[in-house]
Amino acid sequence: MASRRILMIVGDFVEDYEAMVPFQALQVVGHTVDAVCPDKSAGQSVRTAVHDFEGDQTYSEKPGHNFALNATFAEVDPASYDALVVPGGRAPEYLRLDQRVLDLVRHFVEADKPIAAICHGLQLLATAGALAGRSATAYPACGPEVDACGGAYVEVPIDSVHVDGNLVTAPAWPAHPAWLKAFCEVLGA
């Protein structure tokens, strides 16, 4: 498998597992992963939140860890990356208000590079216009946003994945095995 250079966009209160697990797992299989957050530099951290499924009408939220960034947002050249990962949590909700983040996402869409997004990460893709004419899954509460931006929301079990060409999406962290396997296949594993 060829090693790929992957950009991961995170922010405060990104979902803990959805940032840490792909960040580490993709490195284990030989890829380079740069985690960035607007207005933060390598060595700084973002706070995370753990979303759990405990039988309530929606997920519960608990404090997570501090997730250390290993690259500086202001220095990112999207052309130097082969793929993009967008974790969920609450971060995509406010990251989609940042034009610089939307421009980064659009680079990957326009260059037809692989994109993996999970849970609420689809909010960022929807706002960037990355889902028009595409099918994707997400946390079910984000399904209307996928449809509203011209995409087609696909309902799958919480531990499943949906692949539409180079777009790999999943509803939440219980899908990590299927989501990461599918993403690695899209990357050429």
Describe what this molecule looks like in 3D.
This protein has about 190 residues and is an alpha/beta fold. The protein is built from six helices and eleven strands. It has one domain: 3-Layer(aba) Sandwich (Rossmann fold). The strands form three sheets. It has a six-stranded mixed β-sheet, with helices on both faces. Strands 2-4-5 form a three-stranded mixed β-sheet, covered by helices on one side. The protein has a two-stranded parallel sheet with strand order 8-9. A hairpin with a 2-residue loop joins strand 10 and strand 11. The longest helix is centred in the N-terminal third of the chain and has 13 residues. The protein is globular.
Q: Output the CATH class name.
A: Alpha Beta
What's the overall average pLDDT, rounded?
A: 96
Topology order in helix (H) and strand (E) letters:
EEHEEEEHHEHEHEEEH
Q: In order across it, which strands form the biggest sheet?
A: 3-1-6-7-11-10
Superfamily (CATH H level) name: Class I glutamine amidotransferase (GATase) domain
> How large is the share of residues in beta strands?
25-35%
Structure characteristics:
189 residues; Rossmann fold
Q: What topology emerges from the helices and strands here?
A:
Layout: E1 5-9, E2 14-15, H1 16-28, E3 32-36, E4 45-52, E5 60-68, E6 83-86, H2 91-95, H3 99-110, E7 115-118, H4 121-127, E8 135-136, H5 143-148, E9 152-153, E10 162-164, E11 167-170, H6 176-187
